Amino acid sequence: MAPFSVVCGRLSPGTALAATGANTESMPMPKLRSLLAKQLKSRRPQLGLALRVTLAALLAFAAAQLLHLHLPLWAVLTAIIVTQLSVGRSLRTALDYLVGTIGGVIYGGVVTIFVPHGNEFELLALLAVVVAPLALLAAFNPRLHVATVTAIIVLLVPTMTEVQPIDSAIDRVLEVGVGAITGLVVSFFVLPSRAMGLAIGCAARILELMADALRELLAGLTRGLDNDALHRLQDGIGESLVKLGEVAGEAESERAVGLSPGLDAAPLLRTLLRLRHDLVMIGRAAGAPLPDVMQQRLGGALKRVASPRRTICGPRPRRCAAAGMLRRCSRCSRRLPTIPMKWPPCAAKG
Fold first, then answer.
1. What secondary structure does DSSP assign to 262-303, as a single string?
2. 92, 132, 150, 163: most buried by Cβ count inside 10 Å?
């Protein structure tokens, strides 16, 4: 469960304040409040997640106590696991957790009930029989890793408490069901965070990284860049694009069940990937400086393209400040209006 600041390469609030270069000790109180409010606003997804996780844990424990579940711990843990940064990720996690739990309960319950294990050696052999197939299944499909844990609980809990295997299996399903439902309800109604909004914010951050990288790469055409510098510029963009792909998948899950309008993050991801490929090609050319003759002819054009200004540099539109336009696109993306989540869910319109 990685926070959005990690996904998009942002700094923590304290680091962000330090990065502004502001001296908070001598700063007037109104200005300090404004700066803190700005930083907190930019961290709204993380703050909302913390609130949702806390509330989900409390509600799951209260529900487990009210229903007299055998082990309320599993309801609380499931609610915490299901409550994710976006609604789409919560849906995926809840589905995977429920499928893995039911599969583990069925397999572990059948083996525990029908295979005798009266002593420690038989129990040890039975544990291997329970774990090995499910571990192999999880190796091929990591989304089912919870099945192994569930089967072990169904097998071992009756040996530690006075409960029958069939009762242990039923309790496990009920505990996970209560936790999953609680986590989903909290994710839907308490400061819900849409994956599409997170994807747009992440794309804005990628555009900023691309603008910085473009200026460095164009400067490298005149002075050259070593491999370490090239990797430093490109790796951050690549990691952010990988994370954007994950968030785009979560946005697709929301769109599939009708929780958000028919916005598709796939074209956004493809466009940024094309821009990344362009930067890779420029980076290959920037490994060595251009010949002096070409630097004399192209030096002015390269400076205009790498300019951080957002205005057009020249009478013709094709002579624009590309780095500045990337930054302008980033700022425009951050100003996009928040699109409300649909509720109740309805089928997405084609």
1. S--SHHHHHHHHHHHHHHHHHHHHTTSPPPHHHHHHHHHHHH
2. 150
Radius of gyration of the chain (CA): 27
Query: What residue spans of the chain are helical by DSSP H?
Result: 4-7, 13-19, 29-42, 44-66, 72-82, 87-114, 120-140, 146-160, 165-189, 195-223, 227-256, 266-285, 292-305, 322-334
Mean pLDDT of the chain: 78
- Using CA atoms, how far apart are residues 2 and 247, in angstroms rounded to an integer? 11
110-123 pLDDT, tens digit per residue, is 988 888 877 888 88
**CA 109 to chain CA centroid, nearest Å:** 34
At residue 312, φ and ψ (nearest 5 deg) are -75, 135
Beta carbons within 8 Å of 304's beta carbon, 6+ residues apart: 313, 314, 319, 321
Mean pLDDT of the 288-297 span: 74
Which two tokens mark 59? 């509600």
Query: Smallest Cα–Cα separation from 134: which of 122, 110, 151?
Result: 151
Asked whether 152 and 131 are in contact (CB, 8 A), the reply is yes
- Mean per-residue pLDDT for 248-276? 80
Both structure tokens of 65: 């106590």
The CA–CA distances, whole Å, from 28 to 22, 31, 34, 43 equal: 11, 5, 10, 23
pLDDT on residue 17:
47
DSSP 314-349: SSSTTSB-HHHHHHHHHHHHHTPPPPPPPSS--PPP
Evaluate whether 265 touches 199 at the Cβ level (below 8 Å). yes
173 C-beta neighbours (distance < 10 Å), count: 18
